[in-house]
Amino acid sequence: MAIVTCKAFTYAKYASGGDGGAISYTGGTMLDDYLAKAEINVDRTDEKEYADGHLIDSEKIPTAAHMVMELVNNNENIKKDVLGMKEVSSELLLTEDDPPFVGAGCLFANRYKGTVTWEGYWIYKIQFAHQGVSGETRRDRTTWQHDTINGDGVAVKLASDGDVCFLAHKSGMTESAAVAWLKGHAGISG
After folding, report:
1. 153 in a domain, yes or no?
2. pLDDT tens per residue across span 154-174
3. Is 28 within the bounds of a domain?
4. Residue 70 belongs to what domain range?
5. How many C-beta atoms surround the C-beta of residue 155 within 10 A?
6. Which of 110, 140, 164, 170 has a CB 3.0–4.6 Å from the CB of 155, allowing a cystine?
7. Ramachandran region of residue 176, left (φ > 0), alpha (ψ -120 to 50) or beta?
8. Residue 101, in any domain of the structure
9. Residue 8, Cβ neighbours under 10 Å: how many?
């Protein structure tokens, strides 16, 4: 199966929850054509149990989720909402204030034997940082890296008796179902 595209960078400002109750968000936003590249990674720790000197059990426990987004369009709202930049005299300033926590996700299209299905990822609580921009000009060509943001997810507990989790994932969807799934996580109606 090959990933053929990514789209729909979606975020919503984290309002409350995740300590044994439902998470609530405000200001859900879906930006359809803003992604050049997306990466979602999960760190795991290997917990092993031994008896009589032999391994009897091994678990790969998730310990962190990370997201990296290369954004095609230099969207000022992303910089304000997700990175916490402040607008002063028509300039955006990156201050020493911590960026806000948000929920964030995106969609990937997979092609297998001519059939395209979509999968979605949603990180429940993540704090982004501006990784940077770079450009290079050599004679008659220009190389450009898009504006890149990266973030680390924070573990949340969705129910008082539930497991601690970092992200939600769903695969095998049509494109319209995947968009609806992602909008549902961000609290976007319609």
Report:
1. no
2. 888 877 667 778 888 999 999
3. yes
4. 2-147+164-186
5. 15
6. 164
7. alpha
8. yes
9. 22
